[in-house]
Amino acid sequence: MVLILTRSDVMSVLDMKDCMDAVEKAFTELAEGSAVLPLRNAIRPPDGLALYMPAYLRKMEALACKVVTVYKDNPTKHNLPTTIGKVLLQDPLTGEVICIMDGGYLTAVRTGAASGVGTKYLARQDRGQTVGIFGAGVQARMQLWAVTEARNIGKALVYDISEEAARLFAREMSEKLQVEIGVAKDPTELLAMDILCTATSASNPLFNGADVREGAHINGIGSHSPGQRELDTAIVKRSLFVGDSREACFGEAGDLLIPIQEGAITEAHFYAELGEIITGKKRGARMTR
Ligand SMILES: NC(=O)c1ccc[n+]([C@@H]2O[C@H](COP(=O)([O-])OP(=O)(O)OC[C@H]3O[C@@H](n4cnc5c(N)ncnc54)[C@H](O)[C@@H]3O)[C@@H](O)[C@H]2O)c1
Predict the structure, then answer these.
(1) Whose C-alpha lies nearest to ligand 1, atom 20?
(2) How confident is the model at residue 128 (pLDDT cuts 50, 70, 90)?
């Protein structure tokens, strides 16, 4: 019998704290070499794109494959969302598929959880009371949720090019997390915060990196292609750069690749994978110089 979990089933059981614990263990396995994570495979049927992301974690005894499709005409032609994601969970002993679960909410919580774990290990202990969130969409909500699990956040500020989206975010998330959330009129207002999260759909830098406070911690998750970025060359150059996966960052992170192309930094600027920090192979340090 295959267990089927809908989005609402996943939402009812998946907690950020639990997800952060699982993500931390997974990063540990990646650093220790007990994770098998083949590169994402793509198939391009005529109307869309299908992406296959398999993974095996030996110590956690987890074998799974996420399948994500992007079909642009789905909403108009088939009354379906553009992006559909499902996760197939298998029994690693027999290979049997034991569960098929909706992957949309799971992916959003997982992305937040990675930032939560990064914040836990890398943000300064003596600060970390205030957070600035760039973007007020799905991912931004998860970023704030995760950061409040990692640090005792007293105040948050959100900025989005849509002020209405930012207001809705502030209303919803202050109720959910019991944190005071202000709406910024200008992105520079956020630069006074201890922790910054960038979770926008922007293609160009969101702020001037020279204006970021020394010692700030930044979770940059929005940009996902080599030609796009949320962080400018100045802040990347000032930073101690830690990524989730070396391979993925050099494959698709414009935040890192553009400053390398400009000659402002070399590949050696990539300091560590998050798993190397968690396992103590590399030491975390102040994030800006
Ligand atoms: N790193 C990862 O693993 C990962 C995972 C999922 C999504 N993402 C990426 O994260 C980004 C956000 O995803 P989402 O689902 O929250 O999207 P979304 O559309 O729900 O929200 C994006 C928000 O960014 C705002 N925005 C755009 N330009 C801005 C700017 N210059 N300044 C401030 N706000 C701006 C938009 O108004 C919108 O409210 C996307 O680019 C997505 O591809 C990354």
Answers:
(1) 137
(2) low
